[in-house]
Specification:
This is Putative Se/S carrier protein-like domain-containing protein. The protein has a single domain (about 5-85), classed as Alpha-Beta Plaits (2-Layer Sandwich). Helices cover about 25% and strands about 35% of the residues. It is built from 2 helices and 5 strands.
Amino acid sequence: MEKYIVITFESINFAMQCEVVLKTEKIDYQIMPTPREITLSCGISIRTSDKYLDKVIELIKTKRIRNKDIYEIIGMGRQKTINKKGLI
């Protein structure tokens, strides 16, 4: 079963800031449209493996990246479960 995290942002600028940090830290990620099931705010989110969750939270705090929320997604398509991890 597929399991990953999605980081949402208030603006594309904050998403780009996070992208730079993840790239510098060599964390695998993908820029993706924000799933409609999550939010209708900024249309850009970052997806990464759930194995990076703790590291991503640490980086968001230490680098003062303004994210909106972090979600854990389990499954695929219509068979997915979305768990809000909350605002960091």
